[in-house]
Amino acid sequence: MINLKQKYVPVVTAAVIFFVGYGALLWAQSAFHLVLLKTRTPLQKPLNDLPRTLGVFHMRSAWANEKLSPEVVQVLGTHHYLIRRYWYRPMSRSTPGAVVRLNINYYPTNFASPHVPNVCWEGAGLVLQKDSYLKLHNVPHADGKKSNLTLRFLSFALPQTDITGLPVATSGNSGLYLNTAYVFQVDGKYVPNPAQVSELFWQKHSKYGYDAKIEVDVLGATSPKFARKQIARFFRAALPAIEECLPNWKKLNARPASVRKKRVHK
User: Fold this and answer.
1) Residue 131 belongs to some domain of the structure
2) Which of 111, 165, 216, 226 is deepest in the core (most CB within 10 A)?
């Protein structure tokens, strides 16, 4: 017959280990000023509040934000997203490349693997032809400053249909491609590669942690050269307004005035 004390020894032991470990975790956070459980990082404004006119780019009144199915949202990993089209008004709307699609995915905490065209576009049957970087100089920001920005730039072969009606990617020898570019804002900084997102996300002394993908697709078949110019135009026009929606990292992590004064008088 099993003794009751023996029966509950494993339970008590597990409870002791849990509370000792939890206590050690709290001690480490306090002693070393670590933040192991991030607080959800609030947006400054809903993504839907992004202006319908950004410089010479305009969202027509007949256009609506794209809504994703529940299944796609589950794969995306966030309900905070914005997908809408903007028309570059100096060009006719029927001209390939005159319309771009903005795709913002925001993750307020608990880092998730970024959803990028490298994966979803190829998953839809498109073939990646060119993978490079787009370096933008003197890009304006919401705080009035300017900086250089590096985006990941991708060109996919144009799809055609075979006798079964299924899409088949061409070799891209026509010089025309489906082009897109993206960048991530992670805890107030910009990086062009998904691997860098995970590197930057964990800042041990910060209470908050978030990442956002900003993607711009050039609609229609265009040359990479034209697409680069169009994406550069849009980023320069749109980034300040996008940053007014995304978290203000400096403000969120600003030290209280009382703490700053104490450091000065030390």
Assistant:
1) yes
2) 216
